[in-house]
Design goal:
Two copies of one chain form a homodimer.
Chain A (H helix, E strand, L loop, with lengths): L2 H8 L8 E2 L12 H20 L8 H10 L12 E4 L1 H13 L5 E6 L3 H8 L4 E8 L2 E2 L14 E4 L13 H14 L3 E4 L15 H9 L8 E6 L11 E4 L2 H15 L4 H12 L2 H27 L5 E2 L7 E5 L6 H9 L9 E2 L1 E2 L11 E5 L5 H20 L5
Parallel strand pairs in A: 1-12, 3-4, 3-6, 6-7, 7-8
Antiparallel strand pairs in A: 2-9, 4-5, 8-9, 10-11, 11-14, 13-14
Helix pairs in contact in A: 2-9, 4-5, 4-8, 6-7, 10-12
């Protein structure tokens, strides 16, 4: 089944009665709505013409400076000149493709990986070198198989990855940074869920480890980092950023000029006001608590309703659980079953089949989002999916 | 002088005392700030979670429907499915490049043309076929010279073009539409200043003429139209649109998914509320009056302060006047002169040299923006520029 066919199929999730674990949406209850309304009013009152006027392509300077200060790891010195504001971090992926990638280039990716990264770079006619991952993230022991491909860069989501929810262990982070530094291969570190850790301690970012390796002397740019306000403030305002060496920021800025001139000023000013006043920081514990309870509910429901032949990941944060069905089960046809509305049936339930997150294979995997549904819905939805799965397993395959 | 060198030079315009006609900025006095503040507060209060959540890639449906209804010419039937919301109309240029252009393709452009269109499509490694223009816009009699180049499309700003300010006459519009229809070459009609006509009557758009030609039977898509809220509401919110056949919108949507997922929801909802309540429409006469007075002031100042050997355009709307210096004068070196701060001098004044708006030539032309400066500033700035010009003309060329 093609990605477009799956998109078509998932349109049914808009109908009432359908429970959807398909989207990658934050909970609307996680939006600090009153604070955003207040801050926005203040911006329009005090700096309205600035918020509505054209702005610099590089971004709103106070926001760039805040990000440089707030996201500089202990061993890396960053300034506003190292930060480009992007229209969501998705635009960061496209811009990096625009300046770095030519047809036929090879990009290393975790397998599975973020679908829209594949989509963004496929437009530049590149090849992907999949690096298998397990419950500890990218298997760095498998990197040897890709070195011969002269990779343009390696793309990695180290924390609570989309789609698998897994986190790259510290020792693998160190190996990845060392091995790529040795070979002069840049890493694109995409870390949208960074702040949403429910258990355990934060691990150092790849950016931080690269700085430490280098001896804390400035910022050599081995790791280019993507970040976003989408998961801690609002995805709908489309404000993200790229941290890169000045020379790369300069090229990205020229590319961004042709692409959308600049990111909306009002939105950047909202993000800045929410960030530098501490309003985002204050709000994060409430998001974490909500999502942790939802993740726990989903893991418990999976244990209750799914057959023993099915396995899944145990995410320490983020928004997704990843499910491995028995080898012979095709998740896309399970989706067809689970979306069928039957008179006496339990009602439809949706998820995203795992195939499209892979460059090849993965037909027996699927992604479940736990951040967007409340706990009763999670219980009901996973129960429905368990029934669909049992029904599906009971039908002998045609082939 | 390269475009980057000019950008560097123009950084000086940020210093106090410098008068700048360089930017393409609307007047901040043209922003309906109170109305935007009120509407934004209402959106965040009544539909806040929608405004802050991810939205569909195609755009906010009520806005798409409003644009389809409001911008459908008499002979063209449009629906929301014909509209993609873009992150400013600059993104429309990039997306059209992404889906239509391959390296080596040839794009027909007015000469001079909008700089950032050249920039957006240069990224796709295309060639440009310049079609000369005069005070009546693109010289359609010169189209014969480009047909042999198998153009991918022709790009045209028919109203108050950026940079020249000129308007394509009705008979040339008809010729352009007929000649391209006959050869199956699409037109990209970019019309950001449409509503800002100060004198005379609105001419039918190319979209409208193509529909009329076709006999008012639906929308065949010969003309793809770009529009924006930048000049009638706010450029800083980055909301524009593309009108195209459904099949093209579908391709553009897939491309946009990889590029920035969707345009900010809050911004689309602000545009929709301002548009469908008539608040934008009500506000336009005030913008027109302000800009008309500024244009008149600039034309009068040019007549007073510029030598007889200099000519300029008489824009019927928009934001720019275009100046032709004597053949031997290089506008980029005039800019160096006019930016020089001298102890007893009149102070620096900035403009954009015309070269970068051309694919070749144009060194003796320059663009002046009249929308962003008040009338006393326009008088003072043009007087300074007249002095710089006289000084420049007095120095014999080195060569």
């Amino acid at each position: 089944m093609t990605h477009s066919a799956i998109r078509e199929l998932l349109k049914v999730t808009e109908q009432p009665g359908c429970i959807s674990f398909a989207g990658g949406l934050p909970s609307p209850d996680a939006f600090p709505l009153d604070e955003v309304a207040e801050v926005t009013q203040r911006i329009l009152r005090d700096s309205g013409t600035r918020a509505l006027q054209y702005g610099p392509t590089e971004g709103y300077r106070p926001l760039r400076a805040w990000i440089a200060e707030h996201y500089a790891p202990p061993d890396v010195t960053l300034s506003a000149e190292n930060v480009l504001i992007t229209t969501g971090s998705q635009q960061g992926l496209d811009l990096l493709g625009k300046i770095f990638l030519d047809p036929g280039d090879v990009v290393g990716v975790e397998s599975p990986t973020y679908l829209a990264a594949l989509q963004a770079w496929t437009a530049y006619e590149v090849e992907f070198a999949p690096i298998p991952s397990d419950h500890n993230g990218m298997q760095t022991s498998r990197l040897n198989s890709v070195w011969s491909l002269s990779l343009k860069f390696i793309y990695c989501q180290p924390n609570f990855q989309n789609p698998t929810g897994v986190t790259l262990t510290l020792s693998r982070r160190e190996k990845l940074v060392a091995a790529t530094a040795q070979r002069g291969i840049p890493i694109i570190e995409d870390d949208p869920y960074h702040a949403l850790r429910f258990d355990g301690e934060h691990l150092p970012t790849l950016l931080s480890l690269a700085g430490r390796r280098q001896g804390g002397d400035g910022y050599a740019g081995h790791v280019i980092a993507l970040g976003t306000f989408s998961k801690i403030l609002s995805p709908g305002i489309r404000v993200g950023w790229i941290i890169a060496p000045e020379a790369v920021i300069h090229k990205l800025t020229l590319a961004k000029q042709g692409v959308d001139l600049h990111t909306a000023m009002l939105n950047q000013m909202i993000a800045y006001e929410m960030a530098h006043t501490g309003l985002i920081e204050q709000h994060i514990p409430a998001i974490i608590q909500m999502y942790r309870e939802r993740r726990d509910a989903m893991l418990a429901a999976l244990a209750t309703h799914f057959p023993a032949s099915v396995r899944w990941t145990m995410p320490q944060g983020g928004m997704f659980v990843w499910v491995y069905l028995p080898e012979q089960v095709d998740a896309a046809s399970l989706l067809e079953t689970s979306l069928e509305e039957q008179p006496e049936g339990p009602g439809p339930v949706a998820f995203v089949p795992g195939g499209p997150f892979h460059t090849q294979g993965g037909a027996n995997t699927l992604r479940l989002n736990f951040s967007h549904s409340d706990i009763p819905t999670i219980h009901e939805g996973i129960s429905r999916l368990g029934l669909a799965l049992k029904k599906h397993l009971a039908v002998p395959a045609l082939s």
